[in-house]
Amino acid sequence: MREIQLGGRKVGREYPPLIIAEMSGNHNQSLEAALSIVDAAAEAGAHALKLQTYTADLMTLNLEHGDFHIGDPDSLWKGQSLYKLYEQAYTPWEWHKPIFERCRQKGIIPFSTPFHRKAVDYLEQLDVPFYKIASFENNDIPLIQYAAATGKPLIISTGMATLAELEETVKAAREAGCTQLVLLKCTSSYPATPADSNINTIPHMRELFDCEVGLSDHTLGIGVAVASVALGASVIEKHFTLSRADGGVDAAFSLEPEEMRQLVSESERAWQAMGKICYERTEKEASSLKFRRSLYISQDMGAGDTLSEENVRIVRPGYGLAPKYIDLFLGKKVSKAAKAGTPLSWDIL
What we know:
Layout: E1 4-6, E2 9-11, E3 18-22, H1 31-44, E4 48-53, H2 56-59, H3 82-89, H4 93-106, E5 109-114, H5 117-125, E6 131-133, H6 141-148, E7 154-157, H7 163-175, E8 181-186, H8 201-209, E9 212-217, H9 223-230, E10 235-239, H10 257-274, H11 283-286, E11 294-297, E12 312-315, H12 326-329
Parallel strand pairs: 3-4, 3-10, 4-5, 6-7, 7-8, 8-9, 9-10
Antiparallel strand pairs: 1-2, 11-12
Domain AFP-like: 294-349
Pfam family, one: SAF
Protein name: Pseudaminic acid synthase
């Protein structure tokens, strides 16, 4: 597998997972709020911040009826037209530069999801280090080919894609020039449930497509994301907001700063805990051997007395012989006096 670098940061199971804070439309059309989100993401320890680059006109048609009206009663955006939703959620293109500059000042990687070729062209002017293809666009082969042709790494979310569709997507990206590919297991419901996350797909996807695999997570909380690390997720993307109470198109399933801080910390702990297959005693465990159980004289004994269950016990600490030898001692006589608390040893017989 080719080594992956995203914005100068190495990505793979040998490294702590890359944590992406997704701003989306949680700035609520305020540049000041957007910059505050950058600051909060950096303070929480996120490694990268993602924008979405589109306009409503590049996303859909300006119609409010039929297919362009959101009538699903379970949708967070019920009652809106697609066009008005994207008008509300989009990040003005002139904001990208100051947001990216703030990211770099704060030491986190700025990048974006382009939803159209024009968005790729614009982002190229801003020297974006890599691109993300959203789940809803993973069937837009012309867009994927256009982004891949830049030669920059691609992250592609896999929500809704069948295996056949995903194979087509990966093939198109690679044939168009993508040599560094990350797929993100994704469940495209908002919010998603843990039961629908199916993160056991992660190692299978990694083997099948011979690429790095991560998680684009729309569940509430951080449990699913942390669990994904144990299955090899090397990139984790979560929507991020200053406060869910502020509202916004994605606020309901976004992490707040303290939750993001916990995700960064706990995902790295999970990665550290994976380690390697090991049955050896660790160096730090060696100092704890003294707290194991072992055989001790439990009553004062004189020379010639017989060892029995009344005067030999299996107790802590571990300075005596191992408990497995007790049957070899019971019924034998001691060769010398021994006080209670004497560790059992072979020369006492």
